[in-house]
Specification:
Elements: E1 10-16, H1 20-31, E2 38-44, H2 49-58, E3 63-66, H3 72-83, E4 88-92, E5 96-98, H4 102-112, E6 116-125, E7 131-133, E8 136-138, E9 144-146, H5 158-161, E10 165-167, E11 174-178, H6 179-184, H7 197-207, E12 211-222, H8 226-231, H9 238-254, H10 257-278, H11 288-291, H12 307-336, H13 341-348, H14 359-371, H15 374-379, E13 383-388, H16 398-410, E14 415-420, E15 433-436, H17 443-448, E16 451-455, H18 463-466, E17 473-477, H19 482-489, H20 495-515, E18 518-521, H21 524-536, H22 542-547, E19 555-557, H23 574-578, E20 585-589, H24 599-610, E21 616-620, H25 634-645, E22 653-655, H26 665-669, E23 674-677, H27 683-687, H28 691-699, E24 703-706, H29 710-718, E25 721-724, H30 729-741, H31 743-759, H32 762-765, H33 767-774, H34 798-838
Helix pairs in contact: 1-2, 9-10, 9-12, 10-12, 10-14, 19-20, 24-25, 24-30
Length: 839
């Protein structure tokens, strides 16, 4: 937002209950906060006029509302909201303090994201070294919990607390909510009194289609239970009572009918076991079988029950007492929900987490999960199979790199299995399952999966998927237009074989177009190309078009990506490996040498440039493809021969005969001064997406490229290097000289490259696929049972005669009697064939 922009009024509500010292400190910190448009409201639940007066005197800028009784945190917040004038409500515990930017960061998120209803702050302990809230989780039995709470911040992975993310709920100790949405939902549920009212609110927001967003820049510090400790001791069991009762209430209100039928009976039974285990109560003491025949007086006296056990039992009793009013609330929530339990499952994080380390309790947890089939409702994340035909090794090429990063992105929310049909499968460690399998071995993983992401020729190896495999969603990754590549790649093959190969590859792509539910391509240029293919094969049907005229839900642009982290040197690079001097100016060709590229013009340009710049060096990163199934192409041999004939090999042109491992390529990139890619002017270039250019972006290398492809447009528009005409060695030599030796120009390129590279980070480019897999559905024209709603009525009676007379006139006008005879004969033949088929 621009400086000076009008900002929304934010009403921050603080609830006090016999904690005036903490409350005054909190309000004073808010009064000095760096957000200008702030309204301070303190709700006093103490029913003590003297305490309220003390707060008013200490912080005259705050509005103090006296509740007259203890309405709990939920009731106090709701009362404060009724007095608030702001369009945004902020809730802050009285034993908390805001960090600079606490309000402004939340407001910025709400303004930038209209679908975000609430912002969950990052909450640390009072010293800022321990974790209070950085993420929320929910167990299948209704226990909302703060993930990583109590852990030293240094022990929590940075990705867990430094990155904004959607959450099921935020903590009420530091939370922002749109005032209008808060009112629409009726605020916090006051039956909760305190504890889990924030869980319940976030759950309800998500069910209605709103998002709750964790924003780490909105930060607060919290002295956990600072006030609670002063008014109630843990051994009373009152906190345990509220936690147990409210967990059941949240579960009952918000789960769907189907899920609740499994979960509620098990949750009630588990609450009983949790109570007896917590108090270490002997659960067999009244069991006649275990007690045996009494040898003395019959025991009938009272049995001592710890308050921690009693708390759990009374919580169930009071949950039952609340059921009539909860049932009415449940009806409202279920009628208003627009999202399923499965949709929210990723936000629960670990729904099957037992949460309590008590042996008898843990045993009961496992029994109940099994007996009531809880895992079917809560434990199963979506199963996604990613299949590639490329080698999965330390030396991965483009298709394998793309499949690997797709699997990595999806594994955060789903169970992912990456399979290669290539015999080379010695992958690096991964947070997902990786295996190799021949086509006959694909049936098992396909049967396991809910969603299958495939590329290349994979569909041909899985014939069962070509048919409408029930329950299987297929994502076809079309980032590589193989038939266009084959036009160049097959030039050395006999004409008839070349035509047959092209027809075969086109059939492979046609099969993917026919079967896919969702398609990926690499650029807007490719999107236009594949839309034409979809239309030509009949997939762009009226039904599909009517469901989504933009076709974005069918065909998404998902470019090849790059690491979101900047490259860091981990070992030797090209200079030490190839013996190139530290001050030499290096041009890097990052990737293989294939027939659709033009390395010959590049070598000739180096020959020209070295005459005026003797320290120029050209390095070809990899001449031998890591996939043994990729045949070596003649263009590589021709390039080496040309460099040899010009006396450049080993002096100005260097060929790395092997393939640099994927996780070591940054060492070679960081040794270069600019990156280059040159190609011929043909149709493959028009729709190509040169993945090596992404490495140049990642490493911040000024780029020199031939014109004609999507990246040439980007480089020209963003001023990331120099674009030259095809096969112009003089222009290419001049461009390389500018990128290598014009320090001011190169520095400007590097600065702009850093900005553009962020747009191509894997997490960014894969967002359309990640979003689809959160709610995968068959394409609109592939839904089982689909049928036309409006059909043309059959022609009958006089309408048939009128139609035939009109046709006769049309045929006579078009060609006279001969045309009439031809058309009538053709129609008679058609009718005869139809009758023969029926017979």
């Amino acid at each position: 937002m621009a400086q000076g922009d009008p900002q929304p009024l934010v009403s921050v509500i603080v609830v006090n209950y016999h904690g005036a010292d903490d409350t005054i400190a909190c309000l004073r910190a808010l009064a000095e906060h760096d957000y200008a448009e702030l309204e301070l409201i303190c709700v006093d639940n103490s029913a003590d006029e003297a305490e309220a007066a003390r707060i008013r005197e200490a912080v005259p800028g705050a509005q103090v509302v006296e509740a007259g009784r203890n309405t709990g945190f939920a009731g106090g917040c709701n009362l404060g909201a009724k007095h608030a004038k702001g369009t945004v409500l902020g809730f802050l515990n009285n034993d908390a303090r805001p960090a600079p930017g606490w309000v402004s960061a939340a407001v910025a998120e709400l303004r930038a994201q209209p679908r975000v209803a609430a912002v969950a702050s990052k909450v640390l302990d009072w010293d800022g070294t321990g974790t209070d809230f950085v993420d929320g989780g929910l167990t299948w039995f209704g226990m909302g919990y703060k993930r990583h709470a109590g852990s030293p911040l240094a022990d929590v992975p940075a990705a867990e607390h430094e990155v904004a993310k959607d959450v099921l709920f935020g903590t009420g100790s530091a939370l922002f909510v749109r005032a209008s949405v808060f009112a629409e939902l009726g605020g916090f549920d006051e039956r909760f009194f305190m504890f889990y009212e924030d869980v319940d609110l976030g759950w309800r927001l998500n069910l209605r289609g709103w998002r709750v967003r964790y924003v780490p820049a909105s930060q607060a510090f919290h002295r956990h239970h600072g006030t609670m400790a002063a008014v109630d001791a843990p051994e009373t069991g009152r906190e345990t009572f509220l936690l147990e009762r409210n967990a059941l209430a949240a579960l009952y209100k918000n789960l769907s009918d189907e899920t609740l039928a499994r979960a509620l009976p098990a949750a009630l039974a588990l609450a009983v076991r949790r109570a007896t285990a917590r108090g270490e109560l002997d659960a067999t003491q009244l069991d006649l079988e275990h007690g045996g025949a009494p040898s003395g007086p019959i025991e009938s006296g009272d049995v001592a029950i710890p308050r921690t056990t009693l708390a759990g039992l009374l919580a169930i009793d009071q949950f039952v007492e609340q059921l009539p009013s909860l049932a009415a609330s449940r009806a409202v929530e279920q009628a208003a929900r627009v999202r399923t339990d499965a949709d929210l499952l990723p936000l629960l994080r670990k729904a099957l987490e037992p949460a309590y380390p008590l042996p008898r309790y843990l045993a009961a947890h496992d029994i109940l999960v099994e007996a009531f089939g809880i895992e079917k409702a809560f434990g199963q994340r979506r199963k996604i199979l990613v299949i590639t035909g490329d080698a999965l090794t330390e030396r991965m090429a483009g298709p394998a790199i793309r499949a690997w990063n797709i699997a990595l992105a999806l594994a955060a929310e789903h169970d992912v299995h990456l399979v290669t049909t290539n015999p080379l499968a010695t992958p690096p460690p991964a947070p997902f399952r990786v295996s190799a399998g021949k086509h006959r071995e694909l049936d098992a993983p396909i049967a396991w999966a809910d969603v299958i992401v495939l590329q290349g020729h994979v569909l041909e190896l899985a014939p069962s998927l070509k048919k409408q495999h029930r329950g299987k969603i297929v994502v076809a990754d079309l980032y590589d237009p193989m038939h266009l590549e084959l036009l160049e790649q097959g030039k050395g093959v006999a004409d008839d074989q070349r035509a047959a190969d092209l027809a075969g590859v086109t059939r492979v792509l046609d099969a993917q177009i026919e079967r896919g539910d969702f398609f990926l391509c690499a650029s807007e240029r490719q999107r236009h190309f594949w839309l034409g293919h979809l239309a030509a094969t009949g997939r762009l049907s009226p039904r599909l078009y009517d469901a989504d005229p933009t076709t974005q839900s069918l065909l998404a642009v998902v470019p090849f990506g790059l690491s979101p982290e900047p490259p860091v040197r981990t070992g030797p690079g090209l200079r030490s490996s190839l013996g190139i001097g530290g001050t030499d100016h290096v041009v890097l060709w990052a990737g293989g040498v294939y027939s659709w590229f033009d390395p010959l013009t590049l070598v000739r340009a180096i020959e020209k440039l070295r005459r005026r710049r003797g320290d120029v060096r050209l390095v070809f990163l990899g001449m031998k493809h890591p996939n043994p199934e990729v045949a070596e192409m003649d263009i590589g041999t021709r390039t080496i021969r040309l460099a040899d004939s010009l006396g450049l090999t080993g002096k100005h042109v260097y060929f790395n005969e092997q393939w640099v491992p994927y996780n070591e390529r940054q060492n070679w990139l960081l040794d270069a001064n600019c990156g280059v890619t040159t190609h011929y002017e043909h149709v493959e270039t028009t729709f190509a997406f040169r993945t090596r250019v992404l490495d140049y972006l990642w490493a911040g290398l000024p780029i020199v490229t031939t014109d004609g492809d999507a990246f040439a447009d980007l480089i020209r528009a963003e001023r990331l290097g120099v674009v030259v005409p095809a096969e112009d060695d003089a222009a290419l030599a001049d461009a390389l000289e500018k990128a290598l030796y014009d320090e001011e120009f190169a520095a400007g390129c590097v600065e702009r490259l850093a900005v553009v590279a962020q747009r191509f980070a894997w997490p960014e480019v894969l967002k359309p696929l990640v979003e689809f897999c959160r709610d995968p559905r068959p394409a609109a024209d592939r839904l089982p049972g689909s049928a036309d709603l409006v059909t043309t009525p059959p022609v009958r009676g006089r309408a048939v005669l009128r139609r035939d007379v009109d046709l006769i006139r049309e045929y006579l006008d078009a060609g006279g009697p001969r045309e009439l005879v031809r058309r009538v004969g053709g129609r008679a033949l058609k009718v005869a064939k139809q009758r023969l088929r029926r017979g």
